[in-house]
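Structure tokens please, single chain.
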Amino acid sequence: MSRKDLSLRAIFAAPAILFVLTLTGLIGALLEDGLWDILGAALLTAWLIVLIWALVRRRR
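Here you go.
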């Protein structure tokens, strides 16, 4: 599939999901303690994991 064949939904799906995960992690970590801090840290690193995956995939 070429990039021209992608719909707007397909193009913006991953950034939208990362936004929701990051926002959920940030709000959860700021408002609650304990488990939410750990979950918030994990959700805030989701974009970093996706970035590393994309860079590794691009090099192949």
